[in-house]
Structure formats: structure tokens, C-alpha cells
């Protein structure tokens, strides 16, 4: 009887040991798979990021101000990926924001006292021209949005986008030319000149990127 009990105990212990061994092996296998999956995902992410950076640098090298192009767009590489439409949309959106900032600066300058009638006229014209540029950029973005998921009239839409962006450049350039005649020299006017220069560069860059859409 005692031998039977002893045999049973040994058998039960052996079964438990086998079960524990199986569970340990399963746990190790699961941990290894998780680690491998994580490593693979990290590698894929790094590869994707490298691809996106290369794509953006190549695109920006076709613009008039490559450094400004890359610096302004690089924070959005995960959104742009390697999509030409997303690239142009992001470039136009950034340009629009800078245009709005420039408009606000010119508007603040128009409120300053001790401006001559000539200076008031120049500032007013500049404000209107930047305002027109803002509307033209909005129109360009609206037409660009219509290209998403559509293969109809693509060339016509791209031509319309180019027209709107070109018009924005013309209005911005008119403001810049008039602003050069402004004799007022303050921290605000210097800030406006810098903003106009950035606006000019971004708009020209956006047009260069758009020109590549139907190539």
C-alpha cells in the first residue's frame, strides 16, 4: 500500500514538473516572439522615416529655397510620407499660416501714429494685397482638396491651383515692392520685412512642388 502511494506521489510530481516545464517554455517562446515583433516594428519605423526624409529632401531640392522648404516641412514627414498631394497641401497650409501672420503684423503697423499720408497709403495697399494672397491660397487649397480620390480633370485642377498660387505670389511681391519704399524703420517693420521674405520663399516653394504634380 505504501509503495503504491509512493509511486502515485512520484507520478504526480513528474506530471507537475512536466506541466511547469511546458509553461516555462511557452512563456519564453511568447517573450521571444514579442521581442522579435517589437524589433521588427522598430526597424520598419526607422526604415520608413529614412524613406520619408529622403523623399522630402529630393522634393525640396527642386524648389527655389531648398533649406526653407525642408525646415518648414520636415516636422510633418509622418503626415506627408511620400505622397505628392499631401506634400503640396502641407506646403500650402504652412504658407497660408505665414500669410496670416504677415497680415496681422501689417495691420498692427497701420495702427501706429505719426505715419505720413504716403506711408499710410503704402501700408493699406500692402494689407489689401496680403489679404488677397490669403484668399488665393485658400482657393488653391480648396481645389487641391478636390483632387483627393478623383481622377477627373486632374490637369485642369492643377492648372487652377498654379493660377491661384501665382496670383498670391504677384500680390505678395507688390506688397514687398511697396514696403521697400516705406521710410519708417522700427522693430515692427523689420519683423514685417522678415515675415514677407519668408512668405515669399514659402509661396515660391509651394508653386515649385505643385509644378511637379503632373510631371
Describe what you observe in this structure.
With 215 residues, the chain is mainly alpha-helical. The chain is 83% helix and 0% strand. The chain has 7 helices and no strands. The longest helix has 59 residues.
What is the topological layout?
Layout (H helix, E strand, L loop, with lengths): L1 H59 L5 H8 L3 H4 L3 H27 L6 H30 L7 H26 L7 H25 L4
Helix pairs in contact: 2-7, 4-5, 4-7, 5-6, 6-7
Entry keywords:
elongated, 215 residues, mainly alpha, disordered N terminus, 7 helices
Report the C-alpha radius of gyration, rounded.
31 Å
Order of helices and strands: HHHHHHH
Number of helices: 7
Q: Helix content range of the residues, please?
A: over 70%
- Counting DSSP E segments of at least 2 residues, the number of strands comes to 0
Distance between termini? 92 Å
Q: Overall 3D geometry?
A: elongated
Biggest beta-sheet profile: none
Structural class: mainly alpha
Percent strand: under 5%
Mean pLDDT: 82
Poorly predicted parts: 2-8
Q: What would a concise description of this structure say?
A:
The protein contains seven helices and no strands. By secondary structure, the chain is mainly alpha-helical.
Amino acid at each position: 500500500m505504501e509503495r503504491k502511494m509512493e509511486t502515485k506521489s512520484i507520478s504526480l510530481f513528474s506530471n507537475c514538473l512536466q506541466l511547469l516545464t511546458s509553461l516555462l517554455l511557452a512563456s519564453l517562446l511568447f517573450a521571444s516572439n514579442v521581442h522579435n515583433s517589437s524589433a521588427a516594428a522598430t526597424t520598419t519605423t526607422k526604415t520608413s522615416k529614412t524613406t520619408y526624409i529622403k523623399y522630402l529632401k529630393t522634393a525640396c531640392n527642386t524648389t527655389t529655397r531648398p533649406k526653407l522648404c525642408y525646415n518648414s516641412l520636415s516636422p510633418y514627414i509622418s503626415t506627408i510620407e511620400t505622397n505628392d498631394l499631401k506634400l503640396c497641401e502641407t506646403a500650402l497650409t504652412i504658407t497660408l499660416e505665414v500669410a496670416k501672420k504677415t497680415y496681422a503684423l501689417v495691420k498692427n503697423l497701420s495702427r501706429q501714429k505719426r505715419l505720413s499720408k504716403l506711408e499710410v497709403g503704402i501700408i493699406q495697399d500692402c494689407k489689401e494685397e496680403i489679404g488677397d494672397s490669403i484668399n488665393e491660397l485658400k482657393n488653391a487649397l480648396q481645389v487641391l482638396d478636390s483632387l483627393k480620390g478623383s481622377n477627373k480633370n486632374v490637369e485642369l485642377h492643377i492648372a487652377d491651383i498654379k493660377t491661384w498660387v501665382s496670383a498670391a505670389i504677384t500680390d505678395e511681391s507688390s506688397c514687398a515692392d511697396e514696403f521697400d519704399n516705406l521710410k519708417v524703420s522700427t522693430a515692427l517693420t523689420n519683423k514685417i520685412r522678415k515675415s514677407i521674405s519668408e512668405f515669399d520663399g514659402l509661396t515660391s516653394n509651394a508653386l515649385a512642388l505643385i509644378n511637379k504634380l503632373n510631371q
